[in-house]
Write a structure and sequence with these properties.
It is built from twelve helices and 14 strands. Helix content is 42%, strand content 20%. α1 runs parallel beside α12 (354-370) and α11 packs across α12 (354-370). Strands 2-1-3-12-11-4-5-10-8-9 form a ten-stranded mixed sheet, sandwiched between helices. It has helices spanning 16-34, 47-53, 59-67, 90-100, 124-127, 168-184, 199-215, 226-235, 247-261, 304-317, 321-336, 354-370, and strands at 6-12, 39-43, 70-75, 105-111, 131-137, 149-152, 158-161, 188-193, 220-225, 242-245, 268-275, 281-287, 339-340, 350-351. With 372 residues, it is α/β, with parallel strands linked by helices. The longest helix has 19 residues, at 16-34. The protein has two domains: 1-104 and 291-372, Isopropylmalate Dehydrogenase, CATH 3.40.718.10; 106-272, Isopropylmalate Dehydrogenase. Nicotinamide-adenine-dinucleotide is lined by residues 15, 75-78, 91, 94, 264-265, 286, 289-295, 301-302, 305, 343. The site of nicotinamide-adenine-dinucleotide has 21 residues, from α4.
């Protein structure tokens, strides 16, 4: 059936196709049970695209991605392609996708489900009920700033140089994403930088403060230095709702927050571009984990990070909040029932395959849907 909801699925390499198979079942379930049909196209990215087309992302696939409302990606990479030069590696396909879609805001939720509270390396009473969202600026800052490079100085010493640089519009557009998310959650935004020692941080603070005063005074805004934020995430992570920060600090803090949950196979992400006149944004949804070549092809990978990424897609690209909630509830129920893939296995629980986890989640969706 043709609809105006266009999805491009790029399953990629390693466990990517295995976990995306379970996502596809839930996409189909939405059509069958909720009357929400998607125009789904499949494409190649990463190593599988290198094998088929000689490049990790073709222009045609990139065009499909731009035409889609959302791209769902599995994972890319693997030892088979590790020796290829950097620009032709699987990861280069993903980087091109992010760059050419203009995905400047990376959303990484860190949520601790009750059933997995013991998977966290922190004490249960610190992380129970944790639900925070980190918004990381993704296309600016020190990873892209010029000048950069390694040069040899007159005295013969070598010098490595990178430049941390942000403009006011770059800061405002990512801060806006943070404020808008906070508005849909608990209306608290913490902006993180190092305004005490970096001019780029000072500008960041000034711009976020000005945007808050002009448009988002209904959201509670706080500022925090990045080093303090790293501590607070361990000491008292539940004080946060949404955190917005730059590319470098976001890289570190989102990985730290991820580990509060203790389970890589559970972590989704979204990367969003600028909204056009109709409010449509380019968007890419993918699990945080990689292609896990050590377990690929064995039907033991955890599909939940990818399913949660699809839930984020429903929430942020299609405004289908009830359906996103449904997926999250179905997963929580299945875990509460004691089913576990190997990566989240715990004493007394029942170990299951990727497929059985998918079966159980679809059954839980059926029950929740029937219960209205
Ligand atoms: P990884 O995330 O693939 O795996 C790390 C460990 O976690 C492995 O032991 C793996 O078995 C386990 N794991 C990961 N996801 C899992 C899941 N869903 N269920 C169960 N266990 C899971 O990271 P890595 O080993 O450093 O990298 C492997 C390959 O993936 C490399 O080629 C790397 O470049 C690539 N990579 C890709 C992405 C991406 O596509 N966005 C991200 C990270 C790494």
């Amino acid at each position: 059936m043709s609809t105006n909801r266009k999805l491009l699925i790029l399953a990629g390499d390693g466990i990517g196709p295995e976990v995306m198979r379970q996502v596809r079942r839930v996409v189909d379930w939405m059509g069958r049970r909720r009357g929400l049909h998607f125009d789904v196209k499949d494409g190649l990215v990463g190593g599988t695209s290198i094998e088929a087309n000689g490049v990790p992302l073709t222009d045609a696939t990139l065009a499909e991605a731009k035409a889609a409302d959302a791209v769902l990606l599995g994972a890319v990479g693997g030892p088979r392609w590790d020796k290829i030069e950097f620009e032709r590696r699987p990861e280069a396909g993903l980087l091109r996708l992010r760059k050419d879609l203009g995905l400047f805001a990376n959303l990484r939720p860190a949520t601790v489900l009750d059933a997995l509270v013991d998977a966290s390396p922190l004490k249960a009473d610190i992380v129970r009920g944790l639900d925070i969202m980190i918004v990381r600026e993704l296309t600016g800052g020190v990873y892209f700033g010029e000048p950069r490079g390694i040069t040899t100085l007159d005295n013969g010493e070598r010098q490595g140089l990178n430049t941390q640089v942000y403009t006011s519009s770059e800061i405002r557009r990512v801060a806006r994403v943070g404020f808008e998310l906070a508005r849909k959650r608990n209306r608290k935004l913490c902006s993180v930088e190092k305004a005490n020692v970096m001019e780029s941080g000072l500008l960041w603070r000034e711009e976020v403060t000005a945007l808050h005063a002009a448009e988002f005074s209904d959201v509670e805004l706080s500022h925090m230095y990045a080093d303090n934020c790293a501590m607070q995430l361990i000491r008292n992570p539940r004080q946060f709702d949404v955190i917005v920060t730059d590319n470098l600090f976001g890289d570190m803090l989102s990985d730290e927050a991820a580990m509060l949950t203790g389970s890589l196979g559970m972590l989704p992400s979204a990367s969003l571009g600028a909204a056009d006149a109709n409010g449509k944004r380019c968007a890419l949804y993918e699990p945080v984990h990689g292609s896990a070549p050590d377990i690929a092809g064995r039907d033991i990978a955890n599909p939940i990070a990818s399913l949660f990424s699809f839930a984020m897609c429903l929430r942020y690209s299609f405004d289908l909040t009830a359906e996103a909630d449904l997926i999250e509830k179905a997963v929580a129920q299945v875990l509460k029932g004691g089913l576990r893939t190997t990566d989240i296995m715990a004493p007394g629980m029942a170990r299951c395959s990727t497929t059985v986890m998918g079966d159980s989640i679809v059954r839980a969706l059926d029950k929740l849907h029937a219960a209205g």
